[in-house]
Design a protein that fits this description.
Elements: E1 2-3, E2 6-13, E3 21-28, E4 31-32, E5 35-41, H1 54-65, E6 69-73, H2 89-103, E7 108-118, H3 120-129, E8 135-141, H4 150-156, E9 180-185, H5 193-202, E10 207-212, H6 223-235
Parallel strand pairs: 5-6, 5-7, 7-8, 8-9, 9-10
Antiparallel strand pairs: 1-4, 2-3, 3-6
Helix pairs in contact: 1-6, 2-3
């Protein structure tokens, strides 16, 4: 039976010993039968990030248009999600719970599960997906360099955003052998293309980098372009 595209508010539990309730919005594409599905993770909560971020919403809409069921959600402590911000620790459990819930949906093809994240969401999402083989391809938009680069972290530590030394992991993405797309704004000081290239040089293939001309970290005015790049890659990572 053909299903008309629509949005649906959802709630689910994070994983772990102390789960919290997480709110989300599910994008249901117009499709027949089992469809691919993707999780979309938002930027840093302490900087105002939420599932309503324009880039996150654009990615989810573009995935929906490509026939992918997309779930965007609020990390703990954001909006109506329970708990409180946990500097990436608890947020990894939010990602795990979101993936568990998404894969369990009756219209989802468990062999076609994707993940996309923006800024903080890219770091938390990919760090978790590295160990979860259900994620078949991923996209990192504006991946913030201080989360993985020891040199950049020491130069640009941001305690005001909850950046702590434990977040530096030299093994970040070293075992991620599934297709991954990186997107960075040409003028992004938080995710500089040169820093992203250094990361890409250290991780296994397949991998791809797209630079958005003239864009800063906010990607203001480039949301649709980013969404289309992510959706195009995840549905056909080559």
């Amino acid at each position: 039976m053909r299903r008309a595209a629509r949005l649906r508010p959802v709630v689910f539990q994070s994983s772990g010993r102390r789960p919290v309730q997480i709110e989300g919005i599910l994008h249901l594409p117009e499709t027949r039968g089992a469809c691919p599905a993707a999780l979309v993770c938002h930027p840093h909560p302490l900087g105002g990030g939420s599932m309503h971020n324009a880039v996150v919403a654009a990615i989810a809409r573009a995935l929906e248009a490509q026939g992918v069921m997309a779930l965007r959600f609020n990390f703990r402590g954001v909006g109506q999600s329970g708990g409180e911000h946990d500097n990436g620790r608890g947020e990894a459990s939010d990602v795990a719970g979101a993936l568990d819930w998404l894969v369990a949906q009756p219209d989802v093809d468990p062999e076609r599960i994707f993940l996309a994240g923006y800024s903080f969401g890219a770091w938390v999402g990919l760090a978790y997906a590295q160990g979860d083989m259900r994620v078949r391809a991923a996209a990192a938009v504006g991946l913030v360099a201080w989360h993985y680069s020891g040199t950049f972290y020491r130069a640009q530590a941001r305690p005001d955003l909850g950046v702590e030394p434990w977040q530096y992991d030299p093994h970040f993405l070293q075992s991620f052998t599934r297709p991954v797309l990186f997107i960075s704004g040409e003028r992004d000081p938080l995710s500089p293309p040169d820093e992203i290239r250094q990361l890409i040089d250290r991780i296994p293939a397949p991998k791809r980098l797209s630079i958005i001309a003239g864009a800063t970290h906010s990607l203001n005015g480039h949301e649709q372009q980013v969404g289309e790049l992510v959706a195009g890659f995840l549905t056909d990572p080559g």
